[in-house]
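**Backbone geometry record:**
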Amino acid sequence: MNFPNSKELERVRKKLKKVDPTPVLSSSASVADQLKYALCKEFVIYLRTHEISQLELAQELGVDPARISEIVKYKIDLFTADRLLSLLEQLNPKLKVTVA
């Protein structure tokens, strides 16, 4: 595998400028924030596993596409754990959550 040429690197850099990074959860985050972060991760997994877009997921859940965007960008301060759980339960009615 060769290192990408400068043209390819520039193309990737331009694309990445438009992407919000996934925030890292602080090691001192509250249990509630840890739960919300984990729930957001489940939505990302769902999108990738089912190979659907955020728009398709929003339509499936009957929510504004902006809400799904916020969830997959881990904007946990915008949601309560029970709201995330209720949305996730719509995707998987047999959802089981355990607390360790």
